[in-house]
Amino acid sequence: ESDVVAMQGYRLFVFSCTVKSSKEDCKLKLFEAYIRAQQIGGAEANVALVSGYPQPEHLREEVAEAWSESRNRIRIFGPQHLCQLKSYLKDWFSGR
User: Fold this and answer.
1) Nearest-angstrom CA–CA distance, 70 and 49
2) Are 19 and 51 in contact (CB under 8 A)?
3) Could you tell me the sign of the dihedral formed by the alpha carbons of 59, 68, 32, 16, in that order?
4) What rounded mean pLDDT belongs to the chain?
5) Left if phi > 0, otherwise alpha if psi is -120 to 50, otherwise beta: which for 26?
């Protein structure tokens, strides 16, 4: 199940959203979205998690390394990103 799916040109972005803040719950939600993104958009699909996890960069590094995946195609947004989420998404969609 995916919470939000967006397309920009040929690029697919799949989002999973949760208010949970436990590392295990967030990793599971991200993994589910990652698998769904791969099924829908293939190996070039992008995936993001919007969650209550307080250390999203640490989780992103851990997941990218464990899954041997590009850090540019995975994004994790935590509570500190919510006020400016639009700006963070704009940067990601534009390749920054």
Assistant:
1) 15
2) yes
3) positive
4) 91
5) alpha
Bridge-based pairing of strands 46-50 and 74-77 is parallel
pTM, full prediction: 0.89
- 3-state secondary structure (DSSP) of residue 10: coil
SS3 of 16-71: the string is EECCCCCHHHHHHHHHHHHHHHHHHHHHHCEEEEECCCCCHHHHHHHHHHHCCCCC
Angstrom distance (rounded) from CA 47 to CA 90: 14
The pLDDT value given to residue 96: 72
Instruction: Give the residue from 82, 69, 60 showing the smallest Cα distance to 37.
Output: 69
Residue 24 CB-half CA count within 13 A: 0
Q: Is 37 exposed, middle or buried (0-12, 13-18, 19+ CB in 10 A)?
A: buried
Contact 45, 2 (CB under 8 A): no
